[in-house]
Amino acid sequence: MEESRKSFDAVDLRILSILLKDSRTPLHDISRAINLSTTSCWNRIKRMTDCGVLESYTVKLDLAQLGYNDTVIVQVTLDSHSEQTLYEFGRALESIPEVLEALLISGDYDYFLRLAVKDTRDYERLLRERLYTIPGIRHSKSSFVLRTLKKVDTPLT
Known about the structure:
The protein is an alpha+beta fold and 157 residues long.
């Protein structure tokens, strides 16, 4: 895989940039934008897919349009750091659809969670019924996101 990373050139990055903006961009349009034949463009996309750089094609949703008006950042500390505890905590988070992202972190807390909720009452319900029922949580700290200043999934533009 390390060898494949070295083989990405400016044309590959331009293809990725186009797909990041709209993964439904037709191959013909991508080829034209980067001045490359459709066959060559397809071969590059296939190579990047085969080596795992292109993981999937997806859509972006406006969560507020679906009723999820607030984002909450929750920092969590666990009682134990055993492999079993970490595994079980991760499995429990997988069953909570409102958990958009869960990161094991260094520092004062063990986990950084990003949650989508409808409002403060919905967040209270989520805490009571789902999050605080997970065994092993020692402490948590929550912050409501007031405004998103920047949100990207990759440093490519």
